[in-house]
Design brief:
By secondary structure, this protein is α/β, with parallel strands linked by helices. About 35% of the residues lie in helices and about 20% in strands. It has five helices and five strands, in the order H-E-E-E-H-H-E-E-H-H. It has helices spanning about 5-15, 60-75, 80-85, 130-145, 150-165, and strands at about 25-30, 35-40, 45-50, 90-95, 125-130. Strands 1-2-3-4-5 form a five-stranded mixed β-sheet. The longest helix is centred in the last third of the chain and has 15 residues, at about 130-145. It is globular, with a radius of gyration of 17 Å. The two termini are about 25 Å apart.
Amino acid sequence: HGQGNKFLINFLNLLKIENPNKGMWNITAEQGKIDILLHRSNPETIIVVENKSNWANDQPNQLYRYWYYAIFSRIKEIEKDFYSKNKDKYQIIYLAPNSNKEISEQSISKPEDWSSNLPDKIPMEIETQYFNDFIQEWLEDCKKQLSETNHRIREYITQYQVLCNNL
């Protein structure tokens, strides 16, 4: 789209990520079943985004597995207090169409056959965000950053906003 990392930085600012302009971000999609994974090494920051735009059911232990493989496996931290104090560095975002879609309890629970040394539930707060407000806000902010003459990207964003309102 020719906008560099403007839209990414805008998204990270909405999530209140520490120094979003600092360091190099690695972004993967649909890798290890994680819809979107944003990671940077310096400062260490990991954001998992679970996209439920299609109203799909949560898979058994889904968010717990994502926490374990994307976050815990790197930082080896299980204390709730740690995650509370580091919300600007470690997040799991549950991106739902609207407030009618909620996280299922089994999704944040530890698989029965996993180590007893792990917590029974993900030790961090899952941030639920919605396409019909959070993503709309982000897209509006992105359009504000575009030049008035960039009709093509402006139109793509507008079409995506219509789609997000009709999920």
